[in-house]
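Listing 4. Sequential folding, example run.
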Amino acid sequence: MQKKIMNIINLSGEVCPMTFVKTRLAIEKINYGERIKVIFDSSEAEVNVPRSLKELNHKIIEINKLDQNNFYIIIEK
């Protein structure tokens, strides 16, 4: 059974470190076992956000490109 993504957060236009700060705040609002999808357009975020999430032991379910400039991460708390 696939888990439902509870929230989609679009952080296009945001730059590091705010991409991670806002991602972390969004994760704090969900319950353990829930997932969020966060959309980014920052190349720095593509490297820094997953690394920071792993350091905090959050589970990255998927990282995928939407197009040349945008990607998303699905995170489970």
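-- end of first protein; second protein begins --
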Amino acid sequence: MLEWLAKSTVGKMLATFFLSMLPVTELRLGLPFGVALELEYWQALVASVLGNLVPAPLIILFIRQVFEWLRQRHPRMDAWVTRMEDKAHLKGKKVERYGTLGLILLVAIPLPGTGVWTGSLVAALLKLPMGKALPAITIGVLIAAAIMSAVTFGVIHLL
């Protein structure tokens, strides 16, 4: 069964979807991965965009409670949580300064330390309403998808 899943379009789309959900890889790796698996471009695009967006509302809604729970139940995690919050607050200053455009750009630029996870964390810590944060994050993901599409196909054509 796993062999069929690994070779099927559905299996490849699921692998792309789940890889795009992860905080380090996100769409930056998910989209090129899907293309490398020989998915049709639109299939890789849909799987990576949807996978990348899934964590956003969950992070916005629950990350502050998760951080508080970690601090209470696992005091050793306090330093890690504090580092995460400090990084988010630094990036949040730009979001506060530039508003929605700042959040869009934070998510759109496909570099380490940016993306949906960081943007959602910043939105949560700044207590941005879901109705404002989620559309900005979605626009950022679509811009990141366009950038990564250009990079992916540029690299493929160079090889």
